[in-house]
Design brief:
The chain is α/β, with parallel strands linked by helices. It has twelve helices and eleven strands. The chain has a seven-stranded mixed beta sheet with strand order 1-2-3-4-6-8-11, with helices on both faces. The chain is globular. Bound molecules: octanoyl-coenzyme A (CO8).
C-alpha cells in the first residue's frame, strides 16, 4: 500500500501500480469523493518514475455501476454548471502512462466511461457493460456518447445508449470494447501479465505511442500522421532508442532507462 484513501486502494507490485475502486456496498458507485481520490492517485502515479503501468480495477461483482445516483439526484442544472464535476475527468484522460482496466461484474454508466478512459481492457466472463443513463431520464455525461461510438461504431453505440441495455463480456469482446476475456479468478492476473510485458518497454516510447494513438480521436488523418511523425523523430533524441537498437544488433535484451 503506498497511499491511504477512503474510497480507493493503491498498491504497487514492482513497476506496476494497482488502483482498486473500493465502495463495494454500492457496486463502486463513482461519488465525487471517489473520483477526486482517483484523479489524485493517477496524478501521483503518473509522476512516480518507479511505476511503468497502472491497472485500474474494482471487485468481483463490480468495476463501477456508474455515478453515485444518490448524490446525483440532488443536483440541479445550475449546481452542475457551477461545480462542473466532469471537468476533473480530463485529468484521467491525460494520464500519460498506460492504464489497463481489469473489469469484473458491472461496468455501467460512468463506470463504462471510466473503463473507456483506460487504454486496454481485460474483462471477466461475468462482466456486464452498459450505458443505462437513459433509464434515469438522462444521457451519458462523462464521454459515453463520444467514446463509445469511436470504439464500437455508431449503430451499436446508439443501441446501447438508447435502450440502456447491458451487453455481456462475449458481446463486448466481439464488438471490440474489450481486449481479452478471462475468468473472474484470473482477470487481474491476466491484466498483470499484460502490464509486465508493457512495463519492460521504454517508458518514453510508451508515452509517445499512447499520445499518438489518442491523438487520432482528435485530428484528421493528415494531422494525425504529422503528429505521429513528430513523436517518431523525437524518440531518436532518447537514450532508449540507442539502447533498443544497440541491444537488437548485439543480440541481447534492452534495458530501458526512460530518457
Ligand atoms: N449509485 C448509487 N448506488 C448504487 C449504484 C449507483 N450507481 N448502483 C448500485 N448502487 C447500490 C444500490 O442502491 C444498492 O444499495 P442498497 O444495498 O443500499 O440498496 C447496492 O448498490 C447494491 O445494488 P443492487 O441491490 O441494486 O444490486 P443488484 O445486483 O440487484 O443490481 C445493478 C446491480 C444492476 C448494477 C443495479 O444496482 C443498478 O442498476 N445500478 C444503477 C446503474 C446505473 O444506472 N448506472 C448509471 C448511473 S448514471 C451515470 O453513471 C451518469 C454518468 C455521469 C458521469 C459519472 C460521474 C461520476
Amino acid at each position: 500500500m503506498i497511499s491511504t484513501y477512503e474510497h480507493i486502494l493503491v498498491e504497487k507490485e514492482e513497476t506496476i501500480a494497482i488502483v482498486r475502486l473500493n465502495r463495494p456496498k454500492v457496486h463502486n458507485a463513482l461519488s465525487h469523493a471517489l473520483i477526486g481520490e482517483l484523479t489524485n492517485a493517477l496524478n501521483i502515479l503518473d509522476k512516480d518514475k518507479s511505476v511503468k503501468v497502472i491497472i485500474l480495477t474494482g471487485n468481483e461483482r463490480a468495476f463501477a455501476a456508474g455515478a453515485d445516483i444518490g448524490e446525483m439526484a440532488q443536483e440541479t442544472s445550475v449546481s452542475l454548471m457551477l461545480k462542473d464535476p466532469f471537468s476533473i475527468w480530463d485529468k484521467i484522460r491525460n494520464t500519460k502512462k498506460p492504464i489497463i482496466a481489469a473489469v469484473s461484474g458491472f461496468a455501467l454508466g460512468g463506470g463504462l466511461e471510466l473503463m473507456m478512459n483506460c487504454d486496454i481492457v481485460v474483462a471477466s466472463d461475468n462482466a456486464k457493460f452498459g450505458q443505462p443513463e437513459i433509464n434515469l431520464g438522462i444521457i451519458p455525461g462523462a464521454g459515453g456518447t463520444q467514446r463509445l461510438i469511436r470504439l464500437v461504431g455508431k449503430n451499436k453505440a446508439m443501441e446501447m445508449i438508447l435502450t440502456g441495455e447491458m451487453i455481456n463480456a462475449q458481446e463486448a469482446f466481439r464488438i471490440g470494447l474489450v481486449n481479452k476475456i478471462a475468468s473472474v479468478e484470473t482477470c487481474l492476473e491476466e491484466a498483470k501479465k499484460m502490464a509486465k510485458v508493457i512495463a519492460k518497454k521504454s517508458p518514453i516510447a510508451l508515452q509517445l505511442a499512447k499520445d499518438a494513438i489518442l491523438k487520432s480521436f482528435e485530428t484528421s488523418l493528415s494531422e494525425g500522421l504529422q503528429h505521429e511523425r513528430k513523436n517518431f523523430y523525437m524518440l531518436f533524441a532518447t537514450a532508449d532508442q540507442k539502447e533498443g537498437m544497440s541491444a537488437f544488433l548485439e543480440k541481447r535484451d534492452p534495458v530501458f532507462e526512460g530518457h
